[in-house]
Amino acid sequence: IRVIVCEDSDAASRTTADLIADQLRERPQSVLGLATGGTPLKTYENLIELHRDGQISFAEATSFNLDEYVGLSGDHPQSYRSFMNQTLFSKVDIAPERTHVPDGLASDVPAHCTAYEDSIQSHGGIDLQLLGIGHNGHIAFNEPGSSVDSRTRRVDLTDDTIEKNARFFDSPDEVPREAITMGIATILQAKKIVLLAIGSGKTAAIKSMLFGEVTDEVPASFLRQHVGVTVVLDAAAADGLF
Ligand code: F6R
């Protein structure tokens, strides 16, 4: 795993955006795996700026998001589809029909998950997957206990994750209890992976991921089985690790 430590969150976000921009310049038809949450917000702002400056285009790119809450429609303000439309897709030149986010209202969830996997494959696989990391070491919504062989599926969110994500909802009761998430095996099939972590709250998870046992108790530790992973940290997330 290549680790890049940046002086602050702005620099870490800029570095992450540059890695994605390089990918798009190298291969304009890239298939990007994208994440939601607080972590990538500034990275997406940087990508929007690079696009406005004429330095990158998403016109030929395709995207697949990691996850979506079960029970929320794409136009629910807290759905990950809305998040992506607002924070990135509506502000760059990506074709809406080439953006993919699991459907939280799918009537047949297993069939939808299989179709999502098939769609990733039929687009040639993910070239670059952007990840955040949960305090508990989750990647996407692969919570502790998720198997290395896991694929896109319906999962229960842990109480910890529900509590952390409650900040985006009016009350914790409104946070969905289930999600559809790409699996660990889905993520490990990406050609390149960039994991961004910001802030001291992520240090313990980063430490376990990089230096602990490779175990399903820390889903992010499975990234050590992949040769193309770059971890970008701000100084707070890296504090005391190196
Ligand atoms: C988001 C996702 C999650 C987040 C993680 C960190 O699509 O799959 O794994 O990356 O929960 O969330 P933030 O960035 O809000 O700290």
TrEMBL record:
Reaction(s) this enzyme catalyzes, per UniProt: alpha-D-glucosamine 6-phosphate + H2O = beta-D-fructose 6-phosphate + NH4(+)
UniProt xrefs under Gene3D superfamilies: 3.40.50.1360
Pfam families: Glucosamine_iso (PF01182)
Location of the Glucosamine/galactosamine-6-phosphate isomerase domain: 10-229
EC number assigned by the record: 3.5.99.6
GO molecular function: glucosamine-6-phosphate deaminase activity
Hydrolase in keyword set: yes
Keywords recorded for this protein, A-Z: Carbohydrate metabolism, Hydrolase
Similarity comment: Belongs to the glucosamine/galactosamine-6-phosphate isomerase family. NagB subfamily.
Protein name: Glucosamine-6-phosphate deaminase
Organism (species): Roseiconus lacunae
